[in-house]
Amino acid sequence: MSQFFQIHPDNPQLRLIKQAVQIIDNGGIVALPTDSCYALVCHLDDRDAVTRLRKIRGVDEKHHLTLLCRDLSEIALYAKVDNRQYRMLKAATPGPYTFILEATKEVPRRLSHPSRKTIGLRVPENAITHALLEELKQPLLGTTLILPDEAEPMTDPEQVRQRLEKLVDLVIDGGACSLVPTSVIDMTRDAPELVRQGRGDVSLFGL
User: Fold this and answer.
1) Strand partners of residue 144
2) Closest by Cα among 87, 90, 120 to 103
């Protein structure tokens, strides 16, 4: 049975944030709000938690999981970013974008795309997620909360609780989220390529 925390969307209670981080450190899967949809997240270095997360989501190792980062400097630790890419990322973060970039050696091999050695990264503009990342002091590994055989992401925390209470360790109620997932931008080529149109103004990338 999962725990259920109601956390203020603008002023997250530090006591609850610390408890949530402890659950993550202990191998837990957490459903939390972001600046797009609800997401499932776990500890970056926990192999068992990553396996559980993929199973809940119904995706294999070829599906890009995303590193949720505190800021642009943290992105640069886990991805190779040149000056051109850096300028575009700086203009768009924090925000509802997921960037596909070439992974550095800091990313566990099992988490990068098996054939392309790439990783998805984002800096969410959400106070709860940001507070968790600040307390954890490293990225979270996450994926949009879309259940297998469903087309729409989950956005209602009460519905998340009902559907996933036996599968995840914590559901964070930070209010309803958008129905629209992030825009996904592939930054690994000579020019940015739009992988998925979602929230966020993609004209920032000349798209």
Assistant:
1) 39
2) 120
Helix axes 127-136, 14-25, angle to 10 degrees: 60
What is the DSSP code (8-state) at residue 109? Answer: G
Q: Please report, for the domain that includes residue 41, its CATH number.
A: 3.90.870.10
The pTM (predicted TM-score) of the whole model is 0.89
| C-beta of residue 172 within 8 angstroms of C-beta of residue 32 | yes
Residue 160 falls inside a structural domain: yes
Instruction: Going residue by residue through the chain, which has 207 residues, state the pLDDT in tens, using 9 for 90 and above.
Output: 789 999 999 999 999 999 999 999 999 999 999 998 899 999 988 889 999 999 999 988 777 789 999 998 898 888 999 999 999 999 999 999 999 999 888 877 666 666 568 889 999 999 999 999 999 999 999 998 988 888 888 888 888 899 998 999 999 999 888 888 899 999 998 899 999 998 888 988 888
In the chain, how many domains are there? Answer: 1
